[in-house]
Amino acid sequence: MLTSLLARTSGTLICLGLLLVAMVSSLAFGHIPVSLDMLVTSLLDYDSGSLEHLVIRTERFSRTVTAMIVGAGLAIAGVLMQTLTRNPLASPGILGINAGAMFFVVVGATLFSLTSPSELVWAAFTGAATAAFLVYFLGQEAGRGISPVRTVLAGVAVTALFVSFAQGLLILNQDRFESILFWLAGSVSGRELDAIAPLLPGFFLALLIALLLSRQLNLLGLDDEVIRGLGLRVGQVRLLIGLVVIVLAGTSVAMAGLIGFVGLIVPHMARGIFGTDHRWLLPLSAILGATLLLAADTVARLVIPPQEIPVGVMTALLGTPLFLHLARHVRKVS
Amino acid sequence: MLRYVGLFLIATCLAWAPTASTASSPTVVEHALGSTAIHGNPARVVSLYQGATDTAVALGIEPVGVVESWTEKPMYRYLRQDLQEVTYLGLETQPDLERIAWLSPDLIVGARNRHRTIYPLLERIAPTVIPGNVYDFKALLELMAKATGRVARGDELLAQWQARVDDFRARIRRKLGDQWPQEVAILSFRADHARIYYAGFARTVLDELGFAAPADHRKEGWGIKLTSQESIPAMDAEAVFIFMEDDPAVRRTYETWSSHPLWKNLQAVRQADVYHVDPVTWNMGAGIIAANRMLDELYQHYNLEQPDHQECPQC
Fold first, then answer.
1. Chain B: closest CA distance from residue A95 (Å)
2. Do the chains contact at B262 and A51, CB–CB below 8 Å?
3. Nearest to B148 by CA among B115, B110, B108, B88
4. So what's the ipTM on this one?
5. Are both B76 and B195 inside the same structural domain?
6. pLDDT tens digits for B240-265?
């Protein structure tokens, strides 16, 4: 773990460097080869007649932006959930948010014949929010606030409920299943920025609130009585964080479908490197989350071209070894 | 589980029920999952996949039970008028076994990949035949003709088909000259992705007609799904056949992909050799009637004259 300010600053710079490398790779690699020169001119001096410029601008730019937003959103939502529930296993996937989004998308696609990306995005977002509210309130213990165990149980129950309903609907409408397969597997490709644009203001507002709440988040690790003694309005802070989580995770799921693992693993990676101070943890989780998803998406399109592996599969493949290495390393140091 | 126990009881009862004794010896039909003895000429046929339904109609049989179609539910329009009294048995992937048993069929036709696991149960209900390859509509026709005792009708259909294939090959060679055999790609669009088909019913028919496939499309497996428009160049060929569902989401995908400059850069698009074809005929029907209808479309697309007496015999 990096403790001194100098070490943390240089760590941050390294992470930013990695993010930059991931961004450039995401823009440069794919079915059609593009040179670095070409990449730079496509951004600075766009020529609509050039095929390479066009591919970068229309295809790779939007998926790069989507991957960064989703990666950062999931990672921060993961940190907030883990702090809020004091549970190291909390993540959007485990707390029912993915299942809620999936159920609503399936209902929208099968019963209401919603088809356009802009409609499905809202269905996913509503589903994510519904599931999160359910879990949040089921996870409350009378008079004591949020109970980590109850929250996880509520998450598992809500997930089971939504997943089984969604599966039932999909079995009855097998042809619809095909049309949302890629959403279910998680994908950042072919996203039109227009469809996701309405979600972005809320997303960035939530991101800002999360960063401003860093100090309060640091206190949430303490006992409720101690926190109250320090003058923090626990209930209100928790509710606010809960809302932020819903917006961040909901937007991410709506944009990219079911991408597991980022929300669980990235917070642990960031904590392993930078410690538990949220003033460092939150921004670094965002950077690492964006980097991981960008890398996963870039590798996903290079493995078996012209096909692509679902990015959700790649995040697990890339994330797990990194996570295990980190876990072992941290244990050795301590 | 209970369902299977119930079914087992029904099947056992049926097996014990006195069977109509036929004087003639049974026809033994060899198929993908073994050999089946069939007595007499089955009249009560149950079809458990689309190709078998199409073939049954071609043979002049109205099945007592069929599975639902994938689109145009409950049955593809081109088969509807020949299937008015039919009982629907649910989806191809999960046919209702109890209802099949109640229909007391005397022949069941299933598909290997779909019904291998329930084959032992089906066999207890009625003699069951399973063709080897679902795309090989001619083998299916021969198998079903033999199993239903309509070999003469089957041979007639095959002879008609062969004559049409010969005619088409002769005419298209004359028309395209040294551009024949033409390399063609089979594409499809879905709500959230595009597809290239390497194999399938349509490819089987095109192969028989003498069309070629681009080198990159001669691969194992049914084909690939594409999510990134960057990979549009992988679709290229001298001509492309596109089939897709009539659905707003699918149409939007097609519009997005086909307005991409990479699409406009495809050889087939530049030469205006892009043919929109019927998804039911090209990808769903999978029987001899669908094959004939496919051939009709090809005659039209290539502006070839069709001899009058040769038009699709069943359409």
1. 27
2. yes
3. B108
4. 0.75
5. no
6. 999 998 888 889 889 989 998 889 98
